[in-house]
């Protein structure tokens, strides 16, 4: 089988939530990635980070309350820390799994910055919940600092914007390493959202949906396939109803019609389908595969999953 460049987007199931869960989950995930490598894929990996970045954000901010000489950690810094933390476990697990199979393939993590548009409407309509439950007094303090909060059961939570990715700062490095046969982990958690100010890049108080960032990275790498590994073997229409139907092989036009008819949940499946459609519309001969991590190899070989092309 000829080599194909494949961007693999890992969801929450591939990583777990706590440190022990993540350590265990990445060992299982490594087997799926090694299967793809052995099948002839040049793999570039992206991943979610919601529990991890939330844990880091909470820990850093709680620590700052106890020490006057420490300030609260910006979201961009928390995102960078989560990329390193998740990448560390992933790259070690994948390296070990490949070596067990007699495959020598360097594995690396790139701390990745993703450009966002300062005029993106998302900055005036924040939707991503982060951090722990806050009291009314703590919520008021967050608002005094210019942050957004929302009332939830039992208290308040901070919310941040989720702008769309525009460009990937380290894309040339990602491409160079991937072209040399390395397994590259990049755009973790959707990447660190940054804004350009002259020659400098400044972190934005936001998070980027990792599926959109994965699709953008696949586009810029001119990948052959975008594989989104999630908790289900197939995307379904009529989900959780008695009309539920699994989708197997569909066209871009079919996918767009399902989007237009509201078939996909906005915060779960919709970003995956939209990212896939955008990737396919910007190149020829491409394929999108959405399936569970347990079926990654079968999906890559076209034996299961939802395939859009």
From TrEMBL:
Any one Pfam family match given in the protein's UniProt record, by short name: AA_kinase
Record keywords, A-Z: Kinase, Transferase
Catalytic activity annotation: hydrogencarbonate + NH4(+) + ATP = carbamoyl phosphate + ADP + H2O + H(+)
Gene Ontology, cellular component aspect: cytosol
GO biological process, one term: L-arginine deiminase pathway
InterPro entries, alphabetized: AceGlu_kinase-like_sf, Asp/Glu/Uridylate_kinase, Carb_kinase
Biochemical pathway: Metabolic intermediate metabolism; carbamoyl phosphate degradation; CO(2) and NH(3) from carbamoyl phosphate: step 1/1
Molecular-function GO term, any one: carbamate kinase activity
Annotated ranges, domain Aspartate/glutamate/uridylate kinase: 4-291
Family per record: Belongs to the carbamate kinase family.
PANTHER family linked: CARBAMATE KINASE (PTHR30409), CARBAMATE KINASE-RELATED (PTHR30409:SF1)
Designated name of the protein: Carbamate kinase
Organism: Anaerobutyricum soehngenii
